[in-house]
Design a protein that fits this description.
The chain is of the alpha+beta class. 42% of the residues lie in helices and 21% in strands.
Length: 266
Amino acid sequence: MSPNALIPSHRKPRRPSASSRALRAGVTGGFLTLAVTGATVPANAAEKPVSETQEMPTITTALATSAARSADTAEQVAFNYERQALQDSAFSHAAKAAEKHKAEAVKKAKAEAKKKAEKARKAEEAAEARASRSSERSTLSAPSSSTATGSTATLVSFLKAQLGKAYVLGSSGPSSYDCSGLTQAAFSQIGIDLPRVSQDQSTQGTQVGLDNLQVGDILYWGSAGSAYHVGVYIGDGKFIGAQNSSTGIVERPLDYDMPTGAVRVL
């Protein structure tokens, strides 16, 4: 051992160079620490610690989480606003489209109703016109219904009174008749004037079907306007007519000599 080993040294500690500086940074205990080492100080300044520490708050985990949540919230709010705007726009378009379709449907319904009303009006006018024509024909060609029964009975009574008389071509009675002469004489008894010949008598009044005959209808053989024979329907499927020179004036069933058609003047 050296004899100077136990002698305390009186040498002052070495001071750092005035020009040397060191910046040290680190996170200690949750704070940002800046340490400046070897700062130049005046010779008469009091001794300071080797390092000076300035502590600054750092971004903690809770603060970072809060900031992230705020960002998420802001993004969600923006998304909600955008979604609501899109929904409002869609609803607006849908409402406008529905209103347009409704207006078109109402317009179409009105047009259809007008068309139907016009069709019904025309049908009603046509029915009234037919009824008017029928009424006019009835007024011109036949007496009233209350008189028709009596007139028909008079007509049939006259025809039956002529049964058995001779058929003579061109004769109009009272002792003999041809077919059209007999019908002309019979209808004159009830105040109806008929043309003299069969062709003209077959176009008088209204044409009727053989399945809808009434007493007093004029039957004709041949075609309307060119008939060659006539007779009078007296009911029960029978007629009276001046048939020919062999038979004279007779009463016969329809199937004895089925007529071609019939006209109604009563």
